[in-house]
Amino acid sequence: MGIRKIQGASRKQIILQLLLETFTIVSVAILLGGVFLEFALPHMNHWIQYEVMLDYTSPQLYSIFASVLVVVTLAAGLYPAYYITSFSPSSLLRSDSIKPTSRVGLIKILVGIQFVISTMLLTATVIMQKQMDYLNEKDLGLLAEGVLVINANSKINQLQYESFKKDLLDLPEVKKVAAGPMPDRSFSTPVKNRYGESFDINITYVLDDYVDLLDIEIINGRNFDFENLTDMTQRVIINEEALKLLGLPNGGVGEYFSFQELDLSTFMSGERRVEVIGIVKDFHYRSLRDKIQPLFLVVSETKGLRKQIGIRYSSRDTQALLNKISTLWKALDTDSPFSYAFLTDEYDKFNSSDNRLASGFAYISYLAILLSALGLFSLSNLEAKGNFKTISIKKVLGASTLLLLRQYLGSYFMMSLGAGLVGLSIAWWLIQEWLQHFTYRFEVNVLTVVLPVVMIIFVAASSVFYNLQSAASVNPIENLRKE
Length: 483
Hints:
This protein is α+β, with helices and mostly antiparallel strands. It is about 55% helix and about 15% strand.
């Protein structure tokens, strides 16, 4: 730059040259990023479960690339260009005029900001992953493993269902069969007790031994007797939340309630009076984000219950079992195609978006840590080169390599620790907003909070150690001779 100034180049021309160099680097980066995106896009679409396509004929796509190119070029190139061209030609031509460490303070601030962002993302990732692990492993209150759900779309009548059920139970792999919503098919309705008090209660209509199929625990009373007509028409089972809401005496068994229901065969609404015969342990029948709501299990044969048929099986060869069930289903000669799902997958859908969000944060945080490590590696390399003379003099005066490493690593340790604590505080404040959406949360422990900061410090130490160790290990006489 000094030679170019002496030859008559104006400051504007030199700034333009530096900006063009930056422009070239960013252009190559965008091209390489585009190639990488083309290979990564199918995997990303599978991960987000949404089809994203790049239309290379769209002017909007190229305007986005052009905007990124201009913004990044100006953001990355303007300050260095103005800084270098602010010196006189004689200053630029003197070897010791612009020391590599003359702007280390500013670079440390920028690298520190990188580490703040990295700590924020890493802390968010750890907490989100812990929360999702907690939900994925949480006791549902029922046994979803080993249950296959067939979606019948109500195009199967009672006789067809009974025939299909009998054929299923004849299969050695099938243990139990029952029809009912699985899961999230309840609706809310006002329920009145014997004193006329009204409560909003969720009601789920079931057919066959729904409770036994899902292995829902009965903590008081008994299950439905499907040979007893009174049980089929005038009795209900409630969960623990309903028991708490209603404040029932004697454990709730024997209490009477009434509610309005619509008869789908006549489309007439009438009052149904029912007696509580059993209390089941609370189980999740909706998203695990939400608190378990009070629930009545009511037997009905006229509520479209055969929309879903649950099958508990014990076979490891699920594909062979599916082939057998598909053959039986087609033999019914219904208009509904054979459509099925595993109950565990149905519950996994409740958490799928949050699981993808957590894994996305994980990838982004790892990338941010990598970029921060590269920035800190460059900073420590710059500072080591600028302090060759100081390091050499200290070594001549008797300082050991270990002592020098401890001295220089200490400043980076404090920088990374400070950045880690700031990032941790911001992340904790932000992540609380996300956790507010969950009724059930994991217990945050010290390790969860400390781990991100420890990782950031470890990455900082690893990035700095190589450069400082190399600088401190060089023969001091060689460095001083060059000076």
